[in-house]
Every structure is written in C-alpha cells, then in structure tokens.
Write a structure and sequence with these properties.
Order of helices and strands: HHHHHHHHHHHHHHHHHH
Helix content: 55-70%
Shape: flat
Low-confidence stretches: 31-97
Distance between the termini: 133 Å
Structural class: mainly alpha
C-alpha cells in the first residue's frame, strides 16, 4: 500500500468516526415518543346543564385590588377606618368613625360625573360592606351603570341590607339584561318580613324568560309564604308550569293549616281548572283532606265554598 493510499484510508476512517458520533448523539437526544392517550369522554347533556354558581363580582374585585399596588394606594382613609372598626364591633351594631353619608355622597358624585370605572368600583366595594339602608341612593345609581361588575356590587350591597328599602332596588335589578344578576337580586328579599309590596317582585320574576330566575322566585315565595302573598300564589297557579302549580298548591295547603280560610279559594278557582291533570288531581286531594268532603267536580266545590266561606 502506498503512502497516498494510507492517507486516504485514514481520512475515510476519521470521517466515519465523526459521522458515527453525530448519529449516536442524535439518537441519544431524540425525544421519546408521546404515549397515546385516548380522548376524554364528553360529559353527558345532563352534566353540562348543571350550572356552577359564579363567583361574586365583589370578591373578584377585592382579589384584583389586592394584587395591584397602584389601586391599594387609592384606598381612602374611610375604608381603613371601617376595616379596623369592624374587627371590634359585633354584627349589626353601628361602626364608629365610618362616614356612611360621606361615602354615599362620594359615590353619587362619581356616578353623576361618570368617573373612571376603577374609582366607581372602589367606592362600590366599600358600599357593599356597609349593610345600612343609607347606601340605597348610591345602590340605585349603580344599578344604572353600564358596567356589569358595578351593577353586581350594587346587588351585593342590597343583600347586606335587611330593610324594605331594598324593594325598589330589586324591582330595578329584575330589569337588568344579565339573567344571573336578576336571579341574585331576588335573594335580597329572602330575609324580609312578608309584605304585599313583594308580590310585584315575585310575579315579575315568575314571568321572567330565564328558567333559573323563575325557579328562584318560587324559592323566595316558599320562604315568604303568608296571607299577604296570596296574589303571587294565585299568579303562579295561573301562569306556572305543572311543577310550579304543584308547589303553589302545597304552599296554599300550608297556609290553610295555619288558619288562612282564604287559601282554599285559589285551590278551587285555579287548581281545579288547571290545564294539567296531575295538578287538578292534587287540588281535589287537598280539598278533600282539608274539608272532609268527597266532592270531585269544580261545580260541587265552588258551591260548597260559597256556602261555607267565612
């Protein structure tokens, strides 16, 4: 073998070694194949329809504010006094040093001047914690704001007020375009003493296009059941679906057992004439149980009621 051939052979060997090294490194660093994962099964229609309660906008705003140093610097001394005082004052007692009137005036001024949304949110976050009917002028103004978060804070403020003054605000909130807000607004009347003025709210909500709002209205009616709520029960028997009508009959039976003689009339006038067979049967059963009579027709029951009403 000549010297030239030896040089060529050495060069070939070097090249092969280099190529081998690159191939080895490539195999070593190659990503492992991702194992096959079958697609997750889709939720059933029933599971998808279950509505998850949304997080209150007030809580969302507070979290966002706590992470924003610039926003923290704008918190007023009034808010700081409130936070310090509330730690030492029992629930329901007035908070010393908390200038509610000044807060309401600031909020009203902010809405009249169309202040930046951040400023209005800051004020409404404070108002939502007061729990006094004095804030209602600011709440009513906030319910007209174009920002949904501000309107939601207005509803949160009303939930903390156990006073009939919230009725006007709830009636206003029930016209809001957001069905979730309308549904939450009904909860503001849950702790009120039953009054005739609440019938307009309940009947408006029972006629709402959103099913959740209608169901919550029926829940509120269950909590407020009283003689003065008879117009709402009568309306539910006229306009509601079968489930709503059956619930209304149950509440009317409860009222009769508690001493309300007027409760039998809507059972006769509406329940016996219902479009739903199961509702008519339920009405007959209740009437037979409460009266001890075995009538089965509307005419028989109507005549009996007219002769025995007090």
């Amino acid at each position: 073998m000549t010297t030239r051939d030896g040089v060529k052979l050495s060069g070939t060997i070097i090249v092969l070694i280099i190529v081998g090294v690159f191939i080895f490194l490539g195999l070593k660093n190659r990503e492992k194949p991702t194992p096959y994962e079958p697609p997750r099964p889709r939720k059933s229609v029933t599971e998808r329809k279950v509505r998850t309660p949304r997080k209150p906008k007030a809580a969302v705003t507070e979290v966002a504010s706590s992470t924003n140093a610039a926003a923290e610097e704008t918190i007023s001394m009034r808010q700081l006094r409130h936070e310090r005082a509330v730690m030492f004052v029992p629930d329901g007692d007035p908070i010393p040093g908390f200038d509610t009137k000044g807060l309401v005036d600031d909020a009203l001024s902010a809405f009249r001047s169309n202040a930046p949304t951040e400023k209005k949110l800051e004020l409404m976050n404070q108002i939502a914690m007061v729990g006094d009917k004095m804030v209602m002028p600011a709440v009513l103004a906030a319910l007209d704001d174009k920002d949904e978060e501000i309107r939601t804070l207005a509803v949160e403020a009303m939930k903390a007020i156990d006073d009939p003054s919230v009725v006007e605000g709830v009636e206003k909130a029930l016209k809001d375009p957001d069905p979730d807000l309308r549904e939450e607004a009904l909860e503001c009347i849950a702790t009120l003493t039953p009054e005739a003025s609440l019938n307009d709210i309940i009947m408006q909500a029972l006629n709402d296009p959103n099913e959740d709002v209608r169901e919550n209205a029926l829940d509120m009616l269950t909590m407020l059941v009283d003689d003065c709520m008879m117009p709402s029960l009568d309306y539910a028997l006229k306009q509601g679906d079968a489930d709503t009508q059956e619930t209304s009959l149950t509440l009317l039976e409860q009222l009769h057992e508690e001493g309300s003689h007027n409760a039998l009339q809507p059972i006769i006038e509406q329940g016996l004439l219902s479009d739903y067979n199961e509702v008519r049967q339920m009405a007959v059963s209740i009437l037979q149980k409460q009266s001890g009579q075995n009538f089965t027709t509307y005419e028989q029951w109507a005549k009996w009621y007219e002769e025995n009403r007090k």
